[in-house]
Design goal:
Elements lengths: L1 E2 L9 H5 L4 E2 L7 E2 H13 L16 H7 L6 E2 L2 H5 L14 H6 L6 H15 L5
Length: 129
C-alpha cells in the first residue's frame, strides 16, 4: 500500500481511505514512498541483488492512520460487510522488512515514518489547517 506526502494524489493510500466513511480496521504492511524511493536509488548504486520486501518495518491499521488525520470521522465495519460493497477482494498482509532494515539501518518503522514523512510535512504546509 503506497503512501506519499502528497495527500492530493488519488493513488495515495491515505487519500483513498480518507474518502470512505466506513472501513475495516486491519493492520497491514505499508510503504512510505518519500522514505523508500531514495533507498531504491541507493540499492541500485550498491548493485544489491536478491529479494527484499520493499516496505517499512511493522504494520499499521486504517484506524491508526486516520487517528493521525485531524478531525476525520469514520465508522468501522467487518470484513463480511466490506465484502458486500467492494468489487475486488482486498488482501491484508504483514511483510518482513528484516533484510531491507539490515541494509538500511535508518529505515523507520511504519508509524514513525508516517509521522515524519507524511503528517509533519503536511502540518507545516497548512494542509491540516
Amino acid at each position: 500500500m503506497p503512501i506519499s506526502s502528497d495527500l492530493n494524489n488519488p493513488r495515495n493510500f491515505i487519500t483513498k481511505i480518507s474518502r470512505y466513511s466506513k472501513m475495516v480496521n486491519i493492520p497491514n504492511s505499508m510503504t512510505i514512498l518519500d522514505e523508500l524511493l531514495p533507498i531504491s536509488i541507493e540499492m541500485a548504486k550498491r548493485n544489491l541483488k536478491g529479494i527484499r520486501k520493499f516496505t517499512n518495518p511493522g504494520v499499521v491499521s486504517h484506524n491508526e492512520i486516520l487517528n493521525m488525520y485531524p478531525n476525520f470521522k469514520w465508522v468501522n465495519f467487518t470484513l463480511e460487510e466490506q465484502a458486500k460493497v467492494i468489487v475486488t477482494p482486498r488482501i491484508n498482509n504483514k511483510m518482513d522488512a528484516f533484510k531491507l532494515k539490515m541494509e538500511f539501518s535508518d529505515l523507520l518503522p511504519i508509524k514513525e515514518s508516517l509521522i515524519k514523512y507524511v503528517f509533519e510535512p503536511n502540518k507545516k504546509t497548512g494542509y491540516f489547517a
